[in-house]
Amino acid sequence: MPKEEKIIGGEPESAESTRKGRRGGGNREARRGAVSSDDANKQQSEWEEKIIQVRRVTKVVKGGKKLSFRAVVAIGNGKGQVGVGIGKAAEVLNAIQKGVGDARKHLIKVPLVGTTIPHELTGKQGSSRILLKPAAKGTGVIAGGAARAILELAGVGDVLSKSLGSRAPLNVARATINGLSNLRTFEQAARLRGMSLKQMLAG
Q1: What is the DSSP letter of 26?
Q2: Which residues are registered as beta bridge partners of 64?
Q3: In principle, which of 18, 48, 94, 190 could form an S-S bond with 200, CB 3.0–4.6 Å?
Q4: Rounded to whole angstroms, how far apart are CA atoms 174 and 16?
Q5: 186, 185, 139, 175: which is closest to 160 by C-alpha?
Q6: Residue 186 φ then ψ, to 5°
Q7: Count of helices and strands (H, E) across the chain
Q8: For residue 161, which of 123, 130, 185 has the smallest C-alpha distance?
Q9: Phi and psi at residue 110, in whole multiples of 5°?
């Protein structure tokens, strides 16, 4: 006698396909897709965004004025990676999205010693300067405005800072990035001087 076939929704289903469905073989691809989406969401959750400034920009063109928005956005993972980007668009949301994309392209690695920075330095951008100093544990982030947002996103927990010169948010943000990008660990400084870490610390 021929094998019996089940008719579901107008299509015949053999006994072999029924057994595969019971074993859950047909749901493997769906489970893999769910796992990959969870990994992507977890990776995105590690990055935090902060809007430093949103300004309305007016450009004079033939026939009138063209209005747009400029967004300065900082992004970081709190583990030593941070970046600043600028986005311009006719709508605020699009400008922010472009700023986030630009910030991801300009990420820098910040060397940390515990929760503070390795040494004192001054970051410069245009007429803005910012002084950064290491601080003892428990001091907190002594900074304001754009500098505070970037330092927190970079994972710096204890630092002293002072803004010198122009206080324009974009210039202060870039001056902070400039300072953090020039930080060097003790090992890097010893390597640049051509000596061992013990010799540098003894000197």
Answers
A1: G
A2: 61
A3: 190
A4: 65
A5: 139
A6: -60, -40
A7: 7, 10
A8: 130
A9: -105, 115
* Residue 87 one-letter amino acid: G
CA distance 90 to 70: 9
Beta-ladder partners of 8: 11
Q: At what angle do helices 169-181 and 145-154 cross, to 10 degrees?
A: 40
pLDDT digits over 76-92, tens only?
999 999 999 999 999 99
DSSP state of 195: S
In the chain the domains, ranked by start, together with CATH numbers, are 48-108 (3.30.160.20), 110-187 (3.30.230.10)
pTM here is 0.73
Both tokens assigned to 2: 């021929």
Residue range 84-136, pLDDT digits in tens:
999 999 999 999 999 999 999 999 999 998 899 999 999 999 999 999 999 99
Tell me the mean pLDDT in the region 54-61. Answer: 93
Token pair belonging to 101: 């994309």
